[in-house]
Amino acid sequence: MSAGILEAARAGVVTATGVMANGEALERWLPALLAETSVDVGIHLNATFGRPLTPSLRGRLRAYGGEFPPKEVLLARLVTGSLPVGAIADEWHTQIRRCRLAGVRPWFL
């Protein structure tokens, strides 16, 4: 997917894209993406795919192998209070911080 986005950006078809801080592809593809000055880069705040960056949230998600559960499960846990909204807020702050430290100056979240 990342290679396709870069190819489309170089062709002028894609003018903006978001990166996921907890994605495995971030470190591999981010330098090439940031080199494409015609592309606005934002941060895709993620709470539904992969492994959280914050150890506390991974601990709260032990029943799911420390990974984000399906959207419906996450929503149910947030609504019932078994997962504090603050845990997601902390995760998102960490995702933003990781992207900023990697050189992203986000145009959007």
Q: What's this model, at a glance?
A:
With 109 residues, the protein is mainly α. The chain is built from five helices and two strands; from the N terminus they run αβαβααα.
Helix content: 40-55%
User: Tell me about the biggest sheet?
Assistant: 2 strands, parallel
What does the overall shape look like?
Answer: elongated
Q: Helix/strand-derived class?
A: mainly alpha
The run of helices and strands is HEHEHHH
Percent in strands:
5-15%
Strand order of the largest sheet: 1-2
Mean pLDDT: 95
Using only C-alpha atoms, the radius of gyration works out to 15 Å
Please report the total strand number as a whole number. Answer: 2
| Low-confidence residue ranges | none
First CA to last CA: what distance?
19 Å
Question: Care to describe what's here?
Answer:
By secondary structure, the protein is mainly alpha-helical. About 50% of the residues lie in helices and about 5% in strands. It contains 5 helices and 2 strands, in the order αβαβααα. The chain has a two-stranded parallel ribbon. α2 links the parallel β1 and β2. It is elongated and about 45 Å long. The protein starts with a helix and ends in an 8-residue tail after the last helix. The mean pLDDT is about 95.
